[in-house]
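Friendly challenge for the regulars: who can give me the structure tokens for this chain first? No prize, just bragging rights.
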Amino acid sequence: MKSLVRVFLSIFIISFGLMGVAAWLNSSQGYSGGNTLTVYNWGDYIDPDLLARFQKETGITVIYQTFDSNEAMLTKIEQGGTSFDVAVPSEYALAKMKQEHLLLPLDHSKLPNLKHVDDHFLNLSFDPKNQYSVPYFWGTVGIVFNPELTKGIDFHSWDGLWNPKLRNNLLLVDGAREVVGMSLNSLHYSLNDTNEAHLQRALAKLEKLAPNVKAVVGDEIKMLLANEEAAAGVVWSGDASEIMDENDKLDYIVPDEGSNLWFDNMVIPKTATHVDAAHKFINFMMQPDVAAQNAEFVGYSTPNEDGKKLLPEDISGDERFYPPSEITDKLEVYDNLGKRMLAHYNELFLQFKMHLK
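First reply, four minutes later:
Bragging rights claimed.
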């Protein structure tokens, strides 16, 4: 019995010692206590120099992780395995997170830089009074096209994508809301439509698009379009900006029937363990010079009014990415359609992708 006790005591001492060593290592690397911040953001969605600057100015070590879809982000936060301190959901995902009580309310007294954000991007329907979020980037969904390879095709209408001249020459971003939504818009329906007859018409029209679709892809769509692997593609406006930086022969347009006006937003998940550091990070990202630097690096439109004034004129004055009200008034924000309807959109999108094979 004494031997057994000694064995258990030895195991306990060794385990305790290992825990102490691990804690010391984490502390020495800045991964414990109040000097750590875990940020969960989209890929390629921040200037790394800004993370270094934030760490230098605050002494807070940033652990930066990325996701590639709102659904992946939601799943990981719902599971609760990692305590993310800041996340960046799109507006419909944010609404879902509010509904499921996954967010902490923001303390506006710790966010003095909120005054720099354009009032047009505050107090929106998905988060009245910005109780849980502040805008990070905004933009549209539209068409990148190569004028030399698409002569005779009019992309002022979504119907241009169905032109037989585009056979096997069109790329689509891998997003159910985006692809089903643009088909709905082409039929003059809302991209938040839940009418089953309308959704089936949208699917039928997408299936007619299949001969033109070369691939449905993720982030690689930027490289493929820049390298002229396809003549046109349906993309987010920020990706379009990056693509056009790589290949100035390309252009971007939002069709006249309307499209998506989207917002990505900084929030604090309910499981956050460094709430004060999270507020510091959000406030830092709203500094005008920081917002301008981030917008110039990433290529997406900043909601920061004072930051926009610091951008070069060729960026801030580009109406393709900072469109006038006569265009934005025709755009729609994605509604949170509920778990069942979102699943149905995903099913329709999957049926379409299966039709491509």
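The chain has a mean pLDDT of 90. The chain has two domains: 12-137+264-317, 139-261+322-356. Your move, everyone else.
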